[in-house]
Every structure is written in C-alpha cells, then in structure tokens.
Design goal:
Shape: globular
Keywords: Signal
Strand order of the largest sheet: 1-2
Signal peptide: 1-28
Helix content: 40-55%
CATH topology: Ferritin
CATH class: Mainly Alpha
Number of domains: 1
Number of helices: 5
Strand content: under 5%
Order of helices and strands: EEHHHHH
Domain DUF2202: 85-214
Protein name: DUF2202 domain-containing protein
CATH architecture: Up-down Bundle
InterPro entries: DUF2202, Ferritin-like, Ferritin-like_SF
Length: 216
C-alpha cells in the first residue's frame, strides 16, 4: 500500500493501519536539555548536541549530518516526510510530559533525542520546499486532527501510572519503526535515506529502553 494512503492509528493494543498516511505522530521541541521547537531550523543537524548516555538509558547516537545530495521525492514521499515530522513532535511532547510526572530518566533522555530528530527532519522539509506541519505548534498541539487525537489518547493512557506511560512509549516507537520502514520503501533520495536510517536505529534503541524498564 502506498504511504500516502495510509494512516497509522494507535490503539491501546497497538497500531492499526487504515486510511490517509499523514496522520501518524509527532514531536515538539521543549526539552530543557535542548533549545526549543525552532532550534537549528535550517541548520546542519550534525551540529546538534545529543544528550549524554546511550541506548541502555534511552539515549542514542546523533542522527547523521545531512551531507548527501538531494534527490527526487514523489508526492507520497513528500507527504511521508511531513508525517515523520509530526511523529517526532508527538514523541517529544509525550515523553516530556511523562518526564514531568514520573521519576524516570528514560523519558528525559529520549525526549532530548527526539529534539535532534525533529531538527533533522525539518532540515529536509526546508531543503525540499515542504511545509512544516510542526511549525509554531505549542507543546501538545498538532496541525493534523488525527495526530492530535492520538497524542491525547496516549497521554490519557500514560497518565494511569508509570508502567502505562512506558507502554505508551512502546506504542509510539513501534509505530515510528513501522512508519520509517514504510517511508524507506522505493526511496532514492540519498539525504532522506540517511536521515531515515538514523531515525530507525534511534527508534529501535528507544523501544529497547522501554522494554528494559517494563521487564524490571
């Protein structure tokens, strides 16, 4: 199924694919460890300082600098790039909120990582002349109604307790991995491929971190 005709709809049980792709998740940049939603917009994401720590506590390696040449994106791939920006914003905003509620460093670390991820995607949006759906959106607010509904639902689920918040994090990262793998299908643009590959590795680290906390 082409990415422009998919929606990732998150439920308590996981992810159900249906309808229009642009309604996946997202991340806004209000982590105290970084510089806010507009940090480095249009700058080289390789210059971003990632949080201390590593995969075991939710940190991850920096997303590679965008040094590869641009390519050609189909309309579906342009839609997917905007959807990935909203996913990164959703993840950041959700984890930041959970970090404020629960004494778990994993949420702080992953939220800070998501800040750099969004910056990289924003750089690509600018490079390809695609409108940024996360621009000027306050924490917890999203341009796409389905993304807003997903954030509100996951926030409510994660408010039930620390384990519920970790499960919400697992849901987000599982959906993120599926979205990135789908976004990579038939993609030929070298710069977008490199960023997606970096984001995919990061999401796998984040998912593993949530799994470790839930297994304790």
């Amino acid at each position: 199924m082409k990415t422009r005709t998919r929606i990732a709809v998150i439920t308590a049980a996981g992810i159900v694919a249906a309808g229009a792709f642009a309604t996946t998740f997202a991340l806004a940049n209000d982590s105290p460890a970084m510089h806010g939603p507009g940090a480095g917009r249009g700058s080289d994401p390789g210059a971003v300082t990632m949080p201390r720590g590593g995969p075991r506590d939710g940190g991850c390696l920096a997303v590679p600098a965008i040094v590869d040449p641009s390519g050609t994106l189909t309309e579906a791939q342009r839609t997917a790039l905007a959807a990935n920006a909203e996913e990164e914003k959703l993840a950041h905003d959700l984890y930041t909120e959970f970090a404020n509620r629960y004494d778990l460093r994993v949420f702080d670390r992953i939220a800070a990582s998501e800040t750099a991820h969004l910056q990289a995607v924003r750089t690509l949006l600018s490079r390809y002349g695609i409108a940024d759906p996360t621009a000027d959106q306050a924490p917890g607010h999203f341009a796409t109604p389905a993304v807003q509904a997903t954030y509100d639902r996951l926030l409510a689920e994660g408010s039930a307790g620390q384990d519920a918040a970790l499960e919400a994090g697992r849901t987000v990262e599982t959906a993120d991995i599926a979205l990135l793998r789908e976004s990579l299908d038939d993609l030929t643009a070298p710069d977008v491929q490199r960023v997606y590959d970096g984001l995919l590795t990061a999401s796998q680290h984040h998912l593993a971190a949530f799994d470790r906390h839930l297994s304790r």
